[in-house]
Amino acid sequence: MILLQFLSLSVNILCLVQKLPQIIGLYKTKNVNSISISSVLLEEMGYTIVLAYNLWKHYPLSTFFEYVVLFIQDILLLFAIAKYSINEKDKRTTNRSKPLYGILIFCLYLLASLLGLVPKVWMNICTLFVIPISASSKILQLRTIITNKSAGQVSKIGWAIAAYGSFARIITNLYETNDMNMVINLLISFILNTSVVIVCMIYSKGPVPKLTNENRKKTT
């Protein structure tokens, strides 16, 4: 079907650059303002589970190719966050270990699943956990932006691409796999991704309040 081919191709192409604006922005500005570390970790956890599940089920690569790219891009994003998570007052690194430990755990889990070391029982039910994980990730990012009243280094383009990707994958999964666990997860992702885009637009010009000892706004 031409429509499905177009949707899959467009998602695969867009996912190649989905995280790049945010990654490039971090390396240019060297700060992680309004980026929730916990949100990125949860997001990568969801990507890891979905990627491992699709590989285990031997689904067509066209239905989950973007997760391969997004997994790699989030690894790069976590490296950037680890590098620039610095306390501006005393110049000591803060929260640097969380992204690095996350990278290690996610890579080991993916490797274990590829080697068949993950129990089949878990692989059959793991996608049920992706929905709350993915939703929590996006809710944390929404909370961070709203709390700081600024989009900071959060990329509107990246989240808009994510929203489109979720919508497109709802259609392709309905026709090609009919996996309702994946469809429900994608629907929730679409709603929350769109919400992040809207909030970013609202707070795109709002500065992040200066951190003080009395009133410190965290990025976790």
Supply the number of helical segments: 9
SSE order in H/E notation? HHHHHHHHH
Protein structure class? mainly alpha
Measured as a percent range, the helix fraction is over 70%
What is the domain tally?
A: 1
| Mean pLDDT across all amino acids | 83
What does this protein look like?
The protein is mainly alpha-helical and 220 residues long. It has one domain (2-202). It is 70% helix and 0% strand. It has nine helices and no strands. It has helices at residues 2-15, 20-29, 37-57, 65-84, 97-114, 120-125, 127-148, 156-176, 180-202. α1 (2-15) runs parallel beside α4, α2 (20-29) runs parallel beside α4 and α3 runs antiparallel to α4. It is globular. The model is unreliable at 88-93 (pLDDT under 50).
List keywords for this structure.
0% strand; 220 residues; 70% helix; mainly alpha
Q: Quick recap of the structure?
A:
It comes from Adineta steineri. It holds the Pfam family PQ-loop. The chain has 220 residues and is mainly alpha-helical.
